[in-house]
């Protein structure tokens, strides 16, 4: 058996009764398929590491999850999620038997041995700078201070004000939001100034 982690023992011990046999089955199969695997806890649930991330398991109120880090490259069911290639696991019947699960672990370990990387999606191009609606533009022209603050805001902060205004359901609400925007901008405030940490 590889390197076990007492925190994983504790995690399994504290899991719901239905989850314990599932987690033990996964753990046993992972160690059988990759004898040099190391256990650890990341993001509050068990992970298995072998020359990089290998797989992880988690227990929730009514289901468990088990997923391979490079699951998209393995022969696993197509109806799962990145975190749980086997979907919502509520009993041992939702998982392959020990032999099949061990085979998948071997496949995953072989990918790490070979240094295979998963092609990550390319970052999307940034959104174009937001365009203020006509009523906001008009109001900004009437206040040099508000206009200067608005221009100094990052595009994302400008967008927060613009979206808040255009999402108004009625014309009176929209007018009120434009007026409030000018007031707050004149005071050098961003749209969500109330929630920003005071330095």
How are the secondary structure elements laid out?
Elements: H1 6-13, H2 19-33, E1 38-42, E2 45-49, E3 53-59, E4 64-68, H3 98-113, H4 134-141, H5 144-152, H6 155-166, H7 171-186
Antiparallel strand pairs: 1-2, 2-3, 3-4
Helix pairs in contact: 2-3, 4-7, 5-7, 6-7
Question: Would you mind describing this structure in some detail?
Answer:
This protein is of the alpha+beta class and 199 residues long. Helices cover 42% and strands 11% of the residues. The chain has helices at 6-13, 19-33, 98-113, 134-141, 144-152, 155-166, 171-186, and strands at 38-42, 45-49, 53-59, 64-68. Strands 1-2-3-4 form a 4-stranded antiparallel sheet. A hairpin with a 2-residue loop joins strand 1 (38-42) and strand 2. Helix 6 (155-166) packs antiparallel against helix 7 (171-186). The protein is elongated. The relative contact order is 0.10. The mean pLDDT is 87.
Tags for this entry?
199 residues; alpha+beta; 2 domains; four-stranded antiparallel beta sheet; 7 helices; 4 strands
- SSE order: HHEEEEHHHHH
The CATH class of the largest domain, by name, is Alpha Beta
The shape is elongated
As for the CATH topology of the largest domain, it is: Aspartate Aminotransferase, domain 1
Estimated helix fraction = 40-55%
Class by alpha and beta content: alpha+beta
Termini gap? 51 Å
Q: Tell me about the biggest sheet?
A: 4 strands, antiparallel
- Contiguous uncertain segments of 5+ residues: none
């Amino acid at each position: 058996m590889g390197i076990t982690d007492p925190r994983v023992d504790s995690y399994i011990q504290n899991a719901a009764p239905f989850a314990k046999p599932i987690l033990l089955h996964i753990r046993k199969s992972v160690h059988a398929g990759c004898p040099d695997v190391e256990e650890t806890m990341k993001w509050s649930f068990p992970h298995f590491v072998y020359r990089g991330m290998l797989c992880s398991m988690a227990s929730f109120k009514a289901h468990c999850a088990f997923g391979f880090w490079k699951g998209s490259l393995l022969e696993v069911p197509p109806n799962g999620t990145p975190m749980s290639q086997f979907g919502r696991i509520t009993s041992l019947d939702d998982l392959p038997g020990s032999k099949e699960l061990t085979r998948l672990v071997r496949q995953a370990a072989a990918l790490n041995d070979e240094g295979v990387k998963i092609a990550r999606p390319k970052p999307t191009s940034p959104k174009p700078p937001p365009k203020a609606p006509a009523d906001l533009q008009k109001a900004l022209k009437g206040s040099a201070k508000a206009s200067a603050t608005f221009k100094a805001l990052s595009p994302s902060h400008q967008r927060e004000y613009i979206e808040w205004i255009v999402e108004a359901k009625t014309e009176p609400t929209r007018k009120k939001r434009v007026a409030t925007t000018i007031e707050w901008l004149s005071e050098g405030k961003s749209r969500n100034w109330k929630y920003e940490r005071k330095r």
